[in-house]
Amino acid sequence: MKSSALKRSMQVGAFLGIFGAGYLCGTVSERQAIADMKDLGGAVGGAVVGEAAGSGGAIGQAAKLGTAITDMESQVSGLQKNLETLKMIKSALGG
Q1: In the prediction, which pLDDT does 38 show?
Q2: What is the pLDDT, as a whole number, of residue 13?
């Protein structure tokens, strides 16, 4: 009975030791994930989003929605800039 308990504890100890060594090696050699996003989307509508928008189905529709939102966002930014210019002119004229 003692030998089976000793054998079981040695198995558990070996498992924990191997797990601990793997965890230690994994945390020491951890690398940062850096994504290259210029081909995915962007203000112009990257290649991947353009291809997805051309496809049918839910993915194509979601890509079209994302492209439309990006376009609307750039248009709203332009309108806000124009509104700020008009406010400055109005305040300069004394209004």
Answers
A1: 57
A2: 95
